[in-house]
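Form 12-C: Joint structure prediction
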Amino acid sequence: MNLLLEAAAWLADAAHWTGPGSVPVRVLEHLWVTALVVGAAAVVAIPTGVWVGHTGRGRTAVIAFAGAARAVPTLGLLTLLGLWLGIGLGAPLLALVVLAVPSLLAGAYSGVESVDGTTTSAARAIGMSEWQIVTRVELPLAAPVILGGVRAATLQVIATATLAAYIADAGLGRFLFNGLKSRDYAQMLAGALLVTLIALLFEVLLAAAQRRAARAARPAGQKSTSPSNPVFPKGPS
Amino acid sequence: MTWFSHAWGWVLELTWAHLWLSLPAILLSVAIAVPVGRLAFRRPGLGGALLSGSSLLYSIPALPLLIIVPAVFGVPLRSSATIIIALTVYGAALMVRTAADAFASVDSHVREAAIAVGHAPRELFWKVDLPLAVPVLVAGLRVVTVSTVGLVTIGALIGVPSLGTLFTDGFQRGIVAEVATGLIATVVLALALDGLCLLAGRALTPWRRAVEGAGA
Amino acid sequence: MKRLLTLTAIAAAAVLPLAACGNSDPLAEDSGSGPAGGSGGPLVIGSQDYYSSEIIAEVYAQALEAEGMEVQREFRIGQREAYLPELEAGRLDLFPEYTGPLLQYWEPNTEARLSDDVYAALSEATPDGLRVLDQAEATDQDAYVVTEEFAEKWDLETIDDLADVDEEITLGANSEAESRPNGPQGLADAYGVDAGFTPIEDGGGPLTVKALKDGDIQMAIIYTGDPSIAKNGLVALEDTKGLFLASHVVPLAGDAVGEEAADIINSVSAALTSDDLLELNGRSVDEQLPAATIAEDWLAGQDL
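Section 2 - Result
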């Protein structure tokens, strides 16, 4: 409890709020890294996931890949990539993309897959092209689940982006490493609190977006069940 | 390969240690997440807060968590207990939401039918809800299993041996084979346990195969 | 949230027996289960999470075993904040340490820099229940390191020579250096040299070396005992004004280490030179041998 008070005192200290390396700068860096990573990962993972969900092709491969990618220790990957790419933001960004991809991929394919087959058959019957089926039927219906994937990936990246500070002068991780190495645990906990606050903010925003998408996907009085969680891929049954 | 010829015995020991850190954390995560998830499902008002709270627990960076756990639970910093508790926090946080989804996936007609044929509400959980929730629960369990096995490597940060040790040691000595062995062994162990979960899930839901067989 | 915390607390109660169960495996041995020193059980020897420290600890262990003593190995324990409390609590009995950093851990503002001063101050600063045995000649200390090309270009031998460097210098090191005397602030105060700072958290490891070679940083803090300095054509700059504390290998011992054991360890320290240490580290890195083999070979070549 004491430690928590010390962390609060650290945060309240005005000296930590101005100048280079201060709290606002680190928060902005952290948000910037998160946005870049989730954006890049989404560009790769969501179209792939939608394609897999729509065609049913490559499903086993994608599940296997997502499973293996989840087990890769991010710090390990980061150091290996660092040896290859050198210091700076390149290696952490790449390692974090690998972290974000499984959730996004799982969200996209399970979302599209969960769209009722009779709905897509009906769309086909009235003469929609495959492209139209994907964009006008499957994507809107799958949106809540896809957004769930974005939500899970974003939270993971916010928490893990602290590792960027391992080889780059960026992000809230600087407070964690600095605090750990100089035994300034108040600083370390303050950094962790800031990370958790940012996570809370995004959790609230993305949950709201997900609810809105769920309402749009089930219009006109259909009872909406809670959007199923896409983070958890159904096994290859 | 020079390195491996000297060190394979050590790799096995570390794999074993890794397993013994992972298993308790996974089991505890499930033991916590299932009741909390059921609570979240039955009381949607409370449920939203519970689910968001668990997401937030998952967002605590590992480094501070390893410092906070000994302070909160009074265990020594460098102990299996610290790692297992920290991983349980992550695992349970990760699984609560699926657990809630799992109970939501049980068809309410089935539940009503069970009451109609005379099951007491108390029996409902063990005889109807839980078995029918198993498929989704197993999906959640698999994710917790794989991510826990991957996360055990953070134990290297506080000196608890696991496959992560190969990682720090190999990195310091610049032995790529050692680092790669650490990474690969971690992933293989994760996938092996994942396979066991899958088999356990099948064994626990024999009726699904019957239904699928009939449908095919 | 609160409820979840309570549940987690309950789970913690449940975890302890399970954890103990995992500990039937000697590797996962819980620190608490070790013999609490002094009562005739085996001496518990620890090491840092650093291959060189592990080799020295293994040398201690084998030297003691050769005299018929019983030891227990608890190697690769993380950082000082993790293992020093265990030494103070008597759960670890013997640990290879480094005089400078250990002194700085207990007395961050110490003025001591030279070998004997540091050792004297350290003996003074060591808490009750612990003591430092004789220090070895072998040193493994932080130093400013640059690439050979950079050193030749600016004709660098000592840190003072950096004053003539006409381009921007960025120092790469663990983040704590930013606020420590051996970071940019200390460099400016002692030598009047201005340098930027980039954190690289691998303690002068391969990432740091790569950053030097890539030219992302011009100078790094690397241990002098690291074979990568010679292997990568790096040059350590001489520290004429004492930014860095002398850092000899020194055994930190608890009360359980009796006179006989202390004598054995002291004779090891008397034999361990800086060249030996570099060779031991080199065998670990180049021949990729386990610490036990390297220690055994070295001990076989000594006349202790």
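Section 3 - Comments
Chain C has two domains: 7-18+39-139+246-300, 142-236. The longest helix of chain C spans residues 2-22.
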